[in-house]
Automatic annotation (TrEMBL):
Record-annotated Beta-ketoacyl-[acyl-carrier-protein] synthase III C-terminal domain positions: 232-320
Protein name per the record: Beta-ketoacyl-[acyl-carrier-protein] synthase III
Location of region: ACP-binding: 249-253
Entry similarity comment: Belongs to the thiolase-like superfamily. FabH family.
Entry keyword annotation includes Thylakoid: no
EC number per UniProt: 2.3.1.180
NCBIfam families: fabH, PRK09352.1
Beta-ketoacyl-[acyl-carrier-protein] synthase III N-terminal domain ranges (all copies): 104-179
High-level lineage: Bacteria, Pseudomonadati, Pseudomonadota, Gammaproteobacteria, Alteromonadales
The keyword Nucleotide-binding appears for this protein: no
TM region positions: none
Free-text domain note: The last Arg residue of the ACP-binding site is essential for the weak association between ACP/AcpP and FabH.
This protein's encoding gene: fabH
Reactions performed catalytically: malonyl-[ACP] + acetyl-CoA + H(+) = 3-oxobutanoyl-[ACP] + CO2 + CoA
Enzyme class: transferase
Amino acid sequence: MFAAITGWGKCLPPAILSNDDLATFLETNDEWISTRTGMKERRISHVNVSELAYVACERALAAAGKTAQDVDLIVFGSTTFDELCPNAASNVQRLLGADNAACMDVNTACTSGMYSLTTATAMIKSGVVKSALVIGAEVISPIMDWQNRDVAVLFGDGAAALYLEASSEPAGVLAESLGCFGESREILAVQGWGMKYANQQRVLGQASWAFLGQEIFKKAVAGMAQGSLKTLDKLNFSAQDIDLIVPHQANLRIIDSLAKKLNLPKEKVFINIEKYGNMSAATALVAFVEAIEQGRVSAHNHILLPAFGGGLTWSAHLVKFGDRTQAIAQANVELPECNKTGLMLVNDIIACKKRA
């Protein structure tokens, strides 16, 4: 039994925060950011993460030609859930009207969407469920330390979803590898976000970030390369057997270093970092969905999806795509209207934190 990917959808909030916008309150400029990261802009959400996830799921269901009643399981990968109890997946279930779906949340930071893909795939392969929605979504902007240039320029908000269903034909995740550099977890951490900080006179959202860029760079390249090679080895594949690699979009230099380690030419690497930055749990899935939408994925292609996140978690999935790469239908659903720019939304967040 396999878990074929038959539906895909994404949801990016409309408000854009450009590098020039960041320069209005940080000591930086477009050249400094773009040359070091490859990023030109990112999205800032005016709604909670569950609402982004809901729209992405509706679009994934439409692409698969399914309805909410066809969903047996919702696995929601994120770090920025609306609430911890009840879980955020149950809110997506309610918004969709997916009454038959079991619901669970997964948090492994930037790899959350990919760990969710593993979870849903395993449950379909084992026969527990026959279908699943996999979500990678994040609204990081409210907990961002907007005065810290090291992190403020890197992250954005967004969501993507995949619809999986049981298949007798080899499709979906054929092999994956998961891991974690737990001894180095402090080099990438959001301090002030969790029960550890309860009763410490700290307002929720007043988070500071530990971010040791050079160490993270080394671990990210090592983790994704190690995971990719382990995954390929499970299928007796070489990197040359891959039709496309869609890596986590954290930094263009990391992506370039990974491609060199795997000896993959640039034309086999999908990159969209310039538009969205690092959306944490949403990043790899949004890139995968865009690769499908842009015609970079053909029927029966083998796609490698390496990712890396806080923890320090890493993963690498080898996906075989099915027969169909075109959406069956389009969902008639949109986010509520946003009447503010990305800069206006960020300035609101900064002002709110100053008042707290």
